[in-house]
Amino acid sequence: MNMNPRSVTLNVHVFVAVASYLACFFFPAIYVGGNFEPQSSLGLLLMGWAAALELNFGWFANPAFLIAAFLAQKKPRASAILAVVALALALSFPLYRHVRVHEISSQSPVSAYGWGYALWVMSMALLAAGQFARLRLGRESLVLLAALSAGGMVAMMYGIYGASGSGGLQAHAKERDRVFDASCVTAGMQVVRRAKDVRSVFLAPDWSWTIAPRGSRASKLKYRTYGAIMRNGLLRSGKLDFVVTTAPEGQQGYFQFTPDNMDGITVPQPQGRYAVLTRARDFPWPLGLQGETIEIKDRGDGSLLASASYVLDTQSGRYCGPPGNTFSAQ
């Protein structure tokens, strides 16, 4: 079937609008909470209908837009009306300052809006302006010009919103970079002296993070963490007679473990010649930074054998600290 070239030209704005709509799913739609956690546009599309239970009808811009795009050629007037309804619903979304994420029973405050939301609104502005221009003007060039002008205006407004820092996202990123860079100055490892004849260790707490790279390009490494207890590996190595740890949270005292008793027994005082002391670095929670300082000390004289400190940006995967996955004073 041959299509009328003029009909195809009149529908270019529809294709551009649909392309903008599809593109929005590649970007975060919103950021929530004090740590600006990004929320997937696709995830909001799949689950956003539930917001209607709380009288948030912004999600219904999606079916209105899709029906408007489908009717663009055959019923341009109905399509134009639906496109305007979709645009109005999309623009109403910022009126609701909280959204449900992760769990149906929890709400998080909206901290900022991402390019996913901007492209979503842009697609509806493109379609609405193009359809009304099609009804009023009829000329192909003017229809496309009107649609692109509306879309460009939305893009410009979002650009101003981002550049001005109104949403706080840019300021948040700058503060995270500043704290990360400052913390990297003190991150690293030093070994003062080597331990000799290590037969017992006091772990406070008995917990370690393994920081492993994800990806294969050395210049683009990103890191993630794996948590695990340390005592089992130490005892199974056959190099230690026993390990003493602090009691789990909510309990008092200390626990002693041996290769023959991995379940442990309670002891009144920490024992062991050497201590591995781990404390979390104090970062503001919203920045999404994680870090620890680990010290290995001789409990006999209180002297420091070795120390290590690291910082990890849990959002971007940046890491500063000792190279490799091991830290030891042996």
Report the C-alpha radius of gyration, rounded: 29 Å
Averaged pLDDT, please? 76
The helix-and-strand class reads alpha+beta
How are helices and strands ordered from N to C? HHEEHHHEEHHHEEEEHEEEEEEE
Instruction: Tell me, briefly, the overall form.
Output: elongated
Can you walk me through this structure?
The chain has 330 residues and is an alpha+beta fold. The protein folds into 2 domains: 5-167, no CATH class; 187-320, no CATH class. It has helices spanning 5-10, 12-23, 41-47, 61-70, 76-92, 115-136, 140-164, 169-184, 231-236, and strands spanning 28-32, 37-40, 98-100, 107-113, 188-191, 200-204, 208-214, 222-228, 242-246, 254-258, 261-267, 274-280, 289-298, 304-313, 319-320. The strands form 3 sheets. Strands 5, 6, 9, 10, 11, 12, 13, 14 and 15 form a 9-stranded mixed beta sheet that branches. Strands 2-1-4-3 form a 4-stranded antiparallel beta sheet. Helix 2 (12-23) packs antiparallel against helix 6, helix 4 (61-70) packs antiparallel against helix 5 (76-92) and helix 5 (76-92) packs antiparallel against helix 6. The longest helix has 25 residues, at 140-164. The radius of gyration is 29 Å and the shape is elongated. This is Transmembrane protein.
